[in-house]
Amino acid sequence: MANRVIKKCKIDGKSFPAHEGKLFKNIASPVRKLIRLKHPEVKNTDFICNRDVLFYEIQHVNNLIQNDNKRNSKLDRRLTKTMDDANFEITDVNDIMKNSLTFGQRVSDGVARFGGSWTFIFIFTGILVVWMILNTVELFGIHFDRFPFILLNLFLSCVAAIQAPIIMMSQNRSADLDRMNAENDYHVNQKSEQELRILHAKLDLLSREQVPHNIDIARIQMRMIGELQREIMGLREDISELKEKSKSE
Known about the structure:
The chain is mainly alpha-helical. Helices cover 74% and strands 5% of the residues. The model has no long low-confidence stretch (mean pLDDT 81).
């Protein structure tokens, strides 16, 4: 078997070849912190075998995963609390307005709907034309309102005076409907804003910490695979040397 430099591991006290470990100062900083917690007497020039380094690296990975899970759980609880505490009540405006209608409000809606239609315009125009023809041509001797149609003007003024406040009643209801819709939009926007804030917090956590943690975990996994490969190669060399010795004997 080839001569090798043998060093003693500071943690478990066993002896290992120099290539099966590293100096404490060459170990990653987070792993060094974990080692110092249990072995505060370790110095930068002390030798640590790969098995112990790997043990603390696995512990470091577990700590990263646990911390990430805790932070995700904290954000989830924050989102749930925000959604529960905030007032995001959305009302069915059409159902409320439909069930709360009084008889007067129904009449005002009907008058406003009919007064703003072509049917009303055609009927009212027809009445005016017939009125003026009857009083101008004097068919059948009927002439109850001669030119300049003072009675007609009085009739039109009365219709306008009655129709205007009725239409305003309907417009007031429309304004109430718009106000309730605006309140619903405000609540929806509030809810969306809160959800976006939590989503941004999760994305920031992912980009700042979890992605680098995943990279560290992948790096440690590659190192573990490399250590296993080196141990396998060492075992193969030892087996081949033993076979050669047995043949020579």
